[in-house]
Amino acid sequence: MKNFIKNKKDEDEQKNEVIGIIEQRLGGNKMLVNCLDNKERNCRVPGRLKRALWLRPGDVVIVQLWELDKNKGDIIFKYKLSQIDWLKKHGYLRKEDLTF
Questions:
Q1: C-alpha R_g of the chain
Q2: How do residues 46-66 score in pLDDT, each as one tens digit?
Q3: How many helices (H) and strands (E) does the chain have?
Q4: Would you kindly state where each structural domain of the chain is located, as residue ranges?
Q5: How many C-beta atoms surround the C-beta of residue 96 within 10 A?
């Protein structure tokens, strides 16, 4: 049986992730995202995900903050409707968060 040991790098990456809601598309692969830590960030979609993520204003996403500039980040995941319902049910999102 294999022992599963959490990698310190994985834990640090999770600390740099925050849930956000896309407010506006700025053109290209850049977007303005309202994060749940009450900050508005300029985020981009990394090249490897450009064609995999189709994003619109109002979508709930995970933003991975940049290491050197915490006011910017990469959008790494888009939640589906069933996942958004789960987040609301368990208190991660409020209805006030989804209105803009």
A1: 14
A2: 887 777 778 889 999 999 998
A3: 2, 5
A4: 8-89
A5: 6
CA nearest neighbour of 43 among 15, 16, 4, 5: 16
> Cα dist. 7→18, 50, 74, 85 in Å?
20, 28, 21, 30
Q: Which fold has domain 8-89?
A: OB fold (Dihydrolipoamide Acetyltransferase, E2P) (2.40.50)
Give bridge partners of residue 88 from the DSSP assignment: none
Check if the beta carbon of residue 84 is closer than 8 Å to that of residue 97. Answer: no
To which residue do tokens 């740099």 refer? 16
Q: In this model, does residue 14 exceed pLDDT 80? A: no
Query: How far is Cα 29 from Cα 46, in angstroms, rounded to an integer?
Result: 8
pTM over cut 0.85: no
Quick check: 30 and 42 in contact, CB under 8 A? Answer: yes
The single residue listed with the structure tokens 């987040």 is 87
Q: Do residues 57 and 6 touch, judged by C-beta distance below 8 A?
A: no
